[in-house]
Amino acid sequence: MYKTLSSALLGAFLLMPIAANAASVAELQAQAQALLAQIAALQAQLGANSNTGVGTVRDASSCPLIGRTLRQGISGDDVLRLQQFLARDSSLYPEAITSGYYGALTEKAVQRWQVKYNIVSSGSPSSTGYGVVGPRTAAAIALLCTTGSYGGVSGSTGQPTVGGYITVSPISGAAPLVVNVTASVNTPKSCAAATYALDYGDGTAVQQIPVSAGTCSQLSQTYSHTYQYGGTYQIKLSAGVHSTSATVTVSGAPAPVFTPNLPRESFTVSPTSGAVPLTVTFSGVVNSNDAGFCLGGCSSTLDFGDGTATTVNLPASVGGWLNYSVSHTYTKSGGFKATLYQGAASIGGLTVGSATIIVGAATPPPPPSAYSYSPPNLLPPTDGSLVFGVQFDLPATCTGYSINWGDGSTADIQNDGGSSCTQSSVLKTLYHTYGANGNYTIVVKRGATLSRSDDLSLNITN
C-alpha cells in the first residue's frame, strides 16, 4: 500500500508544471528545488528508499546537453540529441525525425515545448526566441532532466517508468566472501528504455543493467561478486537519483592502504635451466601495496611448479617493503612454471611474476664408441607459449636421428647418410608445438643405427 501511494504521489509531484509562471532560470531553479524537497519529505515518511521501494527516475539518455544556441538551419550531434529528447513526447514532436538537422518541424516541436513549460508562447525566433533553443530554454531543459520531471513518469498516467529492488545472499561472512545479488528491474513494467547501475560498494566496476525500449516486463538477473577484504559494504541498485540498497558485512583483514613511491615488486630467477639436480634461487622485492598484504604481517605463496611451494613474508606495516631470497632444488627433469602470487595461490589470482624453468636429465656416462655424444638440452619457450625445443649434437650433418615428442605426433626423423657428408660434429636444434598442458617424455635417438638414446621429461603447466 505504501509503495503504491508513494509512487502515485511522487508521480503527481513530478507531473506538476515546474515552470508554470517562471520568468527566469533562477525562478525555475527555485521551483525545482522546492519540488525536490517535497519529494524527499514524502520518501522519508513512506520509506520510498527501502530495499523494496520503487523509485521514479529518468532515463539518463533523456538530457540533450546543449552547449550553444540552436535554431533553424543548424546541424550537429546536439541537434540530434535535441530531436531525440523531443521525440519522447509524441504530442510535442509527432514526426519524431532525428536527422541532426534543425528544420521547420524541429522548430515547431521546440515551440510546443516552450509553450508547454511557459518559456515563451509568441513572437518570432529573432524577436522573442520562439522556436530557438537559447540559454533560457536550454537551462529549463537541463533542469527538467536533472530533476526527473521529464521522462521519469508516464505523461498520461503519472506512473513511474523506472523501479527495482535487490535481494542479497549471504549478507555476512568471512573474506573472501562470495555474494549473490539478484537485481529485479523495471518493476513498474514500463515500456521505456532505461539503464540501471549495480554498485557493489567496494570500488570495483559498476555493473550496468540495460532495459531495452519495448520490454514492458519485470526482469531479474543474479550476479556473483567476491569481497576480498573485511569491511562493511553498501550494495546499491540505482537509476538516476533514486536507489535501493543492502548492507553486507565481511569479517577479515581490511584492504591494504596504498603507499606511493615504494620500490616496485620484482621476481628474479637464476638459473632458468640446467641438469638434475638443479638449484634455483628466487629473489626480489615485495611491498605493502601487495594485494595479499595485511597489517601486522602475512605472506605470499611461491609455487615452484613441481608440486611444492613455500611462503614469502610481507612487510608488517603500511609503507614497508622487504627483499626476499629463496632457493629450491629440482630433483626431476622437466619444464616447471614457478609463480610468486600476491597472497594465497589461486587460479587467476594476482601475481608478482612467474618463470619457466627447464631441468634436463642427469649426464649419462659416455657410450663406448668413437664419438662421445653429449646429452640433449630442452629449450623453453621465450613467450610463454607451448613451443619447446630440443638441442643435440651429431658427429656429422648426415648422421641419423629420431625425435619422438611424446604427444602422439609424427616423429622427426633423419636417415643416416653414412660417410656421404663431412665428418665434422654439428649442433642441431628442433622445435615442436604442444597442443595442451601435460606430462611428456621426449626420446632422442642418434647414430647410424640410432643406438644412442636419451629421454627428456617435460611437465607443461602454463
Give an overview in words:
Residues 1-25, 38-61 and 147-158 have low confidence and may be disordered. 29% of the residues are buried. Strands 2-8-7-4-5 form a five-stranded mixed beta sheet, with no helix packed on it. A five-stranded mixed beta sheet has the order 10-16-15-12-13, with no helix packed on it. Strands 20-19-22-23 form a four-stranded antiparallel beta sheet, with no helix packed on it. The protein contains five helices and 23 strands. It has four domains: 2-147, no CATH class; 164-251, Immunoglobulin-like; 268-360, Immunoglobulins (Immunoglobulin-like), CATH 2.60.40; 377-460, Immunoglobulin-like. Helix content is 16%, strand content 34%. A hairpin with a 5-residue loop joins strand 22 and strand 23. With 462 residues, it is of the alpha+beta class.
Derived structural class: alpha+beta
What proportion of the residues form beta strands (DSSP E)?
25-35%
Spatial separation of the terminal alpha carbons:
59 Å
Mean pLDDT score: 81
Roughly what percent helix?
10-25%
Total E-strand runs: 23
| Strand neighbour order, sheet with most strands | 2-8-7-4-5
Give the tally of structural domains: 4
Which ranges are low-confidence, i.e. pLDDT below 50, for 5 or more consecutive residues?
1-25, 38-61, 147-158
- Quick one: biggest sheet? 5 strands, mixed
SSE order, one letter for each helix or strand: HHHHHEEEEEEEEEEEEEEEEEEEEEEE
**Outline:** elongated
Count up the helices. Answer: 5
Radius of gyration: 36 Å
